[in-house]
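Take a minute with the sequence and fold tokens given here and flag any structure token that looks odd. Thanks in advance.
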Amino acid sequence: MSRLISWAVRAAWSWARRKADIKRGSHAAARFAAYGEGTSIAFPPATVFGEPWIRLGAHTLLGGDITLTAGFVPGLDLGPVPLVTIGDGCTIGRGSHVVAHRSIVIEDNVFTGPYVYITDQNHVYADTETPVGHQWPAESPVRIGAGTWIGANAVILPGVHLGRNCVVAAGSVVRPGDYPDHSVIAGVPGRVVRRYDAQDGWSPPLRENAAPPAD
């Protein structure tokens, strides 16, 4: 009997993984401010709320176990403007978090690895006598330019403005600031380690045909 139950549970879970994605035209998709053609959120999501303030473009895929939220808790009136906008042709990796309280804009064709954290709000430590969790957090809009790639486990902090076609290395923590188009950002804290200019090319130059390491 236990084997039969175990098989039934696995079969049901496998079916749900294939069939229970949130797709355009479903009741779940209708709760969003916009839900583009060909877009889906994989099953199972971790936490999704504030859908009326979340706008998803067309042909965008969000991986399973994702956290996608607008506001502190469900049921709030967050005003007339969406807090999260994810453009067309994006892929947000499994287990990632997009947590908005003010404004997060992810432009078209942005790809992320798994477990990326993107937020426009952070805790503060202005009063050293009050627990950090009891202090009112600070907020600053986030924008991620079109064509950008963000590696696994990267963190995008409030106030980050990434240009077009940037690369964020896996595990990086990107601090507030403006990062030009075609920047490669790496490290903790993240910094620009390489840039591309239409006239001068890559700076520093890419290593081409590098010799293999000596034995």
Summary: The chain has a mean pLDDT of 91.
